């Protein structure tokens, strides 16, 4: 089975480019942003091998220099498969910057849709709309974990997880969760931190990571460890996990924004409050209390 890739650009604002040439210079006074160089992502091998198709819409800011920053997956399906390669590809895009009255301006809210299609023979797999949960836990590992969770066998879960952490580093989270359920909070957070801040492995986009982030963000905020919370924000882009549970991500983002403000980093704090407001749907803006809190913090 061969694959073909199609990249489609969806720009939030489209305008006719207008160039007003100043005397004795080729620099435009006014210019709309436009793509100059785009690179298609690599089709994930496991996804391709299993005949899974889909797409991913990423959102980002085009800077004054024409580079891309603040990339996050706005909507992807199936969830959990194409986010990583799409974000990494978008980070390498090059644009001609927007220029207004001779001054380069950044443009936020720009979107690009990556479509992953398969061509040729072979069976297509329909995985449905649900997120891919625990995609890197083997079936026997998942069964063993579920068995101990159901029984409330926390000592057994800890022993099982620590026995397999060298094979699958995600087990560090389950060891931490077991310690937390046994009331050993210091040991619990240490294990979960080892998973998130692993020295050799990337932070995976999975439900287990989402659960770990929920635990650490709340712990750091409640225990007033604001520098640790800021370090976590710098290490992991929590906006990826908005695809799993947007309201919970807004809650975490609100605590992170407040941590920046308490630490005297007002600009960074306001940026994150604004992200909560800007990235919420119109319906969520009225139903989600965390969006309302962010708007209040911004004086909106």
TrEMBL record:
Span of the signal peptide: 1-22
Annotated GO biological process: transmembrane transport
Organism: uncultured gamma proteobacterium HF0010_05D02
Protein origin, superkingdom: Bacteria
InterPro entries: TonB_C
Keyword Ubl conjugation: no
The TonB C-terminal domain, residue ranges: 28-125
Protein name as catalogued: TonB C-terminal domain-containing protein
Keyword Signal found: yes
Keywords associated with the record: Signal
């Amino acid at each position: 089975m061969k694959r073909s890739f199609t990249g489609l650009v969806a720009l939030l604002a489209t305008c006719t480019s207008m160039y007003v040439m100043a005397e004795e210079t080729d620099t435009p006074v006014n210019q709309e942003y436009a793509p100059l160089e785009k690179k298609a992502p690599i089709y994930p091998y496991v996804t391709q091998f299993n005949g899974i198709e889909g797409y991913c819409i990423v959102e980002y800011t085009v800077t004054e220099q024409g580079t891309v920053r603040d990339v996050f997956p706005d909507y992807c399906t199936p969830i959990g498969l194409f986010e990583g390669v799409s974000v990494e590809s978008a980070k390498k895009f090059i644009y001609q910057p927007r220029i207004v009255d001779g001054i380069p301006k950044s443009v936020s809210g720009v979107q690009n849709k990556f479509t992953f299609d398969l061509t040729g023979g072979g069976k297509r797999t329909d995985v449905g709309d649900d997120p891919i949960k625990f995609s890197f836990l083997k079936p026997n590992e998942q069964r063993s974990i579920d068995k101990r969770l159901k029984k409330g066998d926390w000592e057994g879960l800890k022993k099982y997880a620590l026995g397999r952490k060298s094979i699958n580093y995600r087990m560090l989270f389950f060891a931490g969760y077991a310690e937390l359920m046994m009331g050993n909070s210091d040991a619990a957070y240490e294990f979960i931190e080892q998973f998130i801040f692993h020295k050799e492995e990337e932070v995976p986009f999975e439900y287990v990571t989402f659960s770990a982030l929920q635990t650490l963000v709340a712990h750091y905020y409640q225990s007033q460890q604001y520098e640790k919370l800021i370090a976590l924000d710098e290490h992991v882009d929590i906006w990826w996990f908005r695809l799993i549970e947007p309201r919970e991500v807004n809650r975490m983002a609100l605590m992170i924004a407040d941590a920046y403000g308490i630490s005297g980093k007002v600009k960074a704090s306001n940026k994150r409050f604004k992200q909560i407001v800007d990235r919420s749907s119109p319906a969520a803006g009225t139903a989600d209390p965390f969006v309302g809190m962010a708007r209040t913090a911004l004086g909106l």
